[in-house]
Design a protein that fits this description.
Blueprint lengths: L7 H4 L7 H5 L3 H14 L5 H20 L13 E2 L2 E2 L11 H23 L6 H15 L10 H21 L71 E6 L2 E6 L20 H13 L9 E3 L15 H7 L26 E3 H11 L8 H15 L16 H30 L4 H11 L22 E3 L17 E6 L13 E5 L22 H17 L9 E5 L15 E5 L2 H14 L5 H27 L20 E4 L7 E7 L3 E9 L4 E10 L2 E7 L2 H4 L3 E9 L2 E2 L3 E5 L3
Antiparallel strand pairs: 1-2, 3-4, 5-6, 7-8, 8-9, 10-11, 12-13, 13-16, 14-15, 14-17, 17-18, 17-19
Helix pairs in contact: 3-4, 3-5, 3-6, 3-11, 3-12, 4-5, 4-7, 4-11, 4-12, 5-6, 5-7, 8-13, 10-15, 11-12, 11-14, 12-14, 12-16, 14-15, 14-16, 15-16
């Protein structure tokens, strides 16, 4: 069977993306593609890469806006969180063509320097660095230009200065970048002992309301990814959106708090599917039984039948009616006609088992992909390339040139994706809710909760659903040679990775519930963080709202977005699909809704994780759009808005001598009031080499002898900056010589 992973960008993700079009892309688009490629070969961390996408959008936008007479910059000259960035402005060149050249140069240096900094320690660094060096060469730029004197040394220096400023901002945004994003010990500890998925059942779980670590390799449990992320400085979210919880002396920040998920009832107050918690996870088990292309179930997946949801459920009763518990899907209606053509959408009848599997893999974004937020940048780029699309901001006014469209779209989308990561991970870490693999196996370990007269009754057990979730009885093929499995719970579900080696695909059959797996790669299984709420649902709905707002149209260009999954070439860990399939979406929201459902068919989320995520994304997308729009129109930001409130960073006096440095140097700086002081030293790629913490210093002139310089720094050129409280000095050059 085919085992080679084929990323979306290799497959030719969308029909209208051509090589000739790639050659005509703006410089911002070229750097965005470099960033997406870098994410694909790096560690899969949706939090970190949401922040990267946001910061790269911000530095490219600032390099563009610095030369604009209407738009305001985002970071330059502004206070963002606890960071203030000095900026004295630049004199724009005389002609439009010269401005274009300056912008492209500044954007390239900003993106290049930030990429070298952010991906220096990436597992894919050996791939990433030659690529970005090559792009700089192709664009005609000299990577040895390291000046940050943007007033005297032009656009390249401005780009370097913007990148260094973003690096400094990244050190005070509470992401813990300086610790490789690792959270402090004692901040979060899992309630449950690990689950070893290759072993039967889930005998060690103690609390089925909380997340359980998984040991995919059978040995090493994976830690919760970035539980501190709710504290990270957001883009557009404000204190009005924030709730702060105290748990065992630690603060958990939750923006757009959705409230708690349902709890697992072991008292018998509710039975079977009447229990909302049990209904949620039983649905995931039932939908796992849809993943067999040979079962004869055929469905129409075209916009004629799928999409066009008009509302989301707001309570338990509406939730139960929203999802088709037995047959899959939700209460959507499809569309009568394509609004762009006036003709009906052509039906596309495919095996349901193929549709569910393709959907699960297309949106999965596990290792070796651009992660869920990056996935929506590929969709944004696809729309931007579509021949029927006109780059009018919000669908109105003049057509923007490619560069202006790209920098504005990337800042907006990046800001929204970053805010989603901050909000969702705040919810995940605070509510710490269980994943389906733990809940399904854990409930089945207890028994069944539907029938007190049936075998293995337990009020906390899994509900029985005829034909889908049943009790193993005498004579059952699963009973075992000695009847050892009689009374255990069985599921009609995807059989799991162990069966793929025997056939082209595992297929669906009755299996012991203790052996149930999500439809994911066996090395991945389930992401290493809590379930509630679904990141896919939130990222996708926020992105769909952004796409709708920036384009001024809720429909894809031409009334349909498409992705082709070719027969027996697309699926990664199984053979398939069994026929050519074309995923089709009329509206951006339809794509978002399918991303949400993919996580239910994939066994990663129950419905309760899904809908609150969609609702949160529905808030964040428009918030981010309006916030970004304020910079584009000049109504937000601007270098004058902070001058009365904060001391300009240029007043921070710092120098070092001797310079060049051999064995030691002395830093000298002035403090006007008692302040927290530190010195940061960077290499020419923008990588933080040394952090010197001076502590609280009283008013006056201070010196710091740094005798370790010759031992720590290799010969070369470096930059250093002084930080006093929230103020950062202008970067200064320091040359280190061989002894």
């Amino acid at each position: 069977m085919r085992k080679i992973f084929t990323p979306l960008f290799i497959l030719g993700m969308f029909a209208f993306l051509t090589e000739s079009g790639m050659a005509q892309h703006s410089v911002a688009r070229q750097w965005n593609e470099q960033l997406l490629d870098a994410i694909r070969v790096s560690t899969s961390r949706p939090t970190v890469h949401s922040r990267n996408l946001f910061h790269f959008g911000a530095v490219m936008y600032d390099a563009w806006a610095a030369y604009d007479d209407v738009a305001n910059t985002f970071l330059l000259g502004n206070q963002v969180g606890e960071y203030f960035c000095e900026f004295e402005g630049v004199d724009p060149p005389a002609t439009d063509e010269e401005i274009k050249v300056a912008r492209e140069e500044a954007i390239s240096y900003a993106a290049y320097r930030l990429m070298r900094h952010r991906f220096a320690n990436s597992p894919g660094a050996a791939i990433i660095m030659p690529r970005i060096d090559s792009l700089m060469t192709q664009l005609g730029y000299d990577t040895s230009v390291i000046s940050t004197d943007y007033i005297n040394d032009g656009p390249a220096a401005l780009g370097n200065y913007i990148a260094l400023s973003c690096m400094e901002f990244g050190m005070v945004d509470y992401s813990d970048e300086d610790k490789n994003y690792a959270y402090a010990e004692g901040y979060y500890d899992p309630v449950n002992d690990p689950l070893f998925p290759a072993e039967h059942g889930n005998p060690n779980i103690t609390d089925m309301n909380h997340w359980q670590p998984l040991a995919a390799d059978g040995v090493n449990p994976r830690k919760f990814l970035n539980p501190q992320w709710g504290k990270v400085t957001p883009f557009s979210m404000t204190e009005e959106d924030l709730t702060v919880y105290d748990k065992e002396g630690n603060e958990y920040y939750v923006y757009h708090d959705p409230g708690a998920p349902p709890v697992h009832d072991t008292t018998g107050n509710t039975s079977g599917l009447d229990d909302y918690y049990k209904w949620n996870h039983a649905l995931v088990a039932v939908w796992s039984g849809h993943l067999d292309p040979d079962d004869g179930v055929m469905i129409d997946i075209s916009p004629a039948s799928v999409g066009n949801l008009t509302s989301l459920p707001t309570n338990e009763e509406e939730m139960r009616a929203f999802y088709n518990f037995l047959d899959g899907g939700v209460a959507d209606t499809g569309y009568t006609v394509n609004p762009a053509t006036g003709a009906p959408y052509e039906p596309q009848i495919v095996p349901m088992g193929d549709f569910g599997r393709v959907l699960a893999e297309f949106w999965a974004d596990g290792p070796n992909s651009e992660t869920p937020p990056g996935h929506w940048f590929t969709i944004l780029n696809y729309v931007s390339d579509h021949p029927d699309f006109e780059k009018r901001y919000e669908g109105e006014g003049d057509i923007l040139d490619d560069l202006e469209w790209d920098v504005k779209a990337y800042l907006t989308m990046g800001g929204a994706m970053h805010d989603v990561a901050v909000a969702v991970w705040g919810m995940k870490s605070h509510y710490d809710f269980i994943r389906p693999i733990s809940a399904i196996r854990g409930m089945a370990e207890l028994g069944q909760s539907s029938d007190t007269a049936e075998l293995s009754y337990h009020p906390g057990g899994i509900p029985l659903v005829e034909g889908h979730i049943e009790v193993v009885k005498d004579g059952d093929p699963l009973a075992g040679e000695q009847g050892e499995n009689i009374g255990k719970i069985k599921l009609y579900a995807w059989k799991g990775p162990d069966y793929i080696s025997e056939t082209e695909h595992a297929g669906v059959d009755w299996i012991l519930a203790g052996d149930w797996w999500p439809y994911q790669r066996p090395s991945f299984i389930t992401p290493p963080f809590a379930g509630y709420v679904s990141g896919h649902s939130t990222f996708s709905r926020a992105a769909a709202e952004v796409m709708t707002l920036i384009t001024g149209d809720e429909y894809f260009p031409g009334g349909m977005g498409i992705f082709d999954a070719l027969m027996n070439e697309y699926l990664v860990f199984e053979e398939g699909p069994s026929i050519d399939i074309e995923l089709q979406w009329a509206k951006y929201r339809d794509a978002s809704d399918q991303a949400s459902l993919s996580r239910l068919w994939g066994g990663i989320h129950p419905p309760i994780d899904d809908v609150p995520g969609r609702q949160t994304g529905q808030k964040i997308g428009p918030e981010a759009h309006e916030f970004a729009k304020g910079y584009f129109t000049g109504s937000r930001g601007g270098t004058t808005s902070n001058k009365d409130k904060l001391r300009p960073a240029s007043s921070l006096i710092v120098k070092n001598y001797p310079n060049p440095v051999v064995d030691f140097t002395t830093f000298e700086y002035a403090v006007k009031s008692s302040s927290e002081v530190s010195i940061h030293i960077y290499d020419m790629s923008g990588r933080l080499i040394q952090h010197i913490n001076e502590g609280i210093k009283s008013p006056g002139v201070h010196t710091r002898n740094w005798e370790q310089a010759g031992d720590i720094l290799n010969a070369g050129v470096y930059f250093y900056q002084l930080q006093i409280d929230n103020q950062i000095s202008t970067p200064k050059k320091m040359v280190v010589l061989d002894r």
